[in-house]
Amino acid sequence: MIDLSDDKSRLQVGRVHGWLAGSYWSPGIERSVVERAIAGSHCLGAYDGDVQVGFARAITDHATFAWIADVWVDDAVRGQGLGRRMVGWFVDHPEFAGIRRIGLVTADAHGVYAALGFHAPLRPDRYMERLDPAAAALLRAAS
Predict the structure, then answer these.
(1) pTM (2 decimals)?
(2) Which of 41, 50, 71, 134 could be disulfide-bonded to 56 (CB atoms 3.0-4.6 Å)?
(3) Which value, to the nearest 10 degrees, does the dihedral of the CA atoms of residues 108, 92, 19, 130 take?
(4) 24 — phi, psi (to 5°)?
(5) How far apart are alpha carbons 44 and 23 in whole angstroms?
């Protein structure tokens, strides 16, 4: 049984960094940036015994808004519903009860998150973003 925990002291930061540095959304991310992201987020680890097999984090005020990011499931346990389970943990957790908007971005897991009530923005014309030039270049190159 894979155990979920939001105890940051259990996170295997080197493993998380390796996953994110190899992801399509943050290729080559520096470990120091991952450490800062963890420090400023409500993090969740998934563990098979003592081995971390998943990670997700929420950037939130725990009152009105949360952004779920960096959902990662290790190859060894993919296809078992762990990504949905981790995002569902945030959706169902008492500290997130009553939050008016929870957002996330995905390139390939829309069906996974739709089962938890996520959908395309109702008013996409109101959404804006400001990208760091390096992030914008990465996104343009991936398009």
Answers:
(1) 0.92
(2) 71
(3) 70
(4) -75, -20
(5) 18
Q: How confident is the model at residue 143 (pLDDT cuts 50, 70, 90)?
A: low
pLDDT in tens, 60-112: 999 999 999 999 999 999 999 999 999 999 999 999 999 999 999 998 889 99
Dist. CA 91–CA 103, nearest whole Å:
11
Residue with tokens 């409500």: 42
The span from the CA of 17 to the CA of 12, in Å, is: 9
In sequence order, which residues have a C-beta less than 8 Å from that of residue 4 and are 6 or more positions away? 44, 45, 46, 47, 85, 86, 89
The whole-number pLDDT of residue 108 equals 87
Q: Say how far apart CA 27 and CA 56 lie, in whole Å.
A: 17
Task: Tell me the average pLDDT across 18-25.
Answer: 93
Query: Distance (Å, rounded) from C-alpha 90 to C-alpha 96?
Result: 7
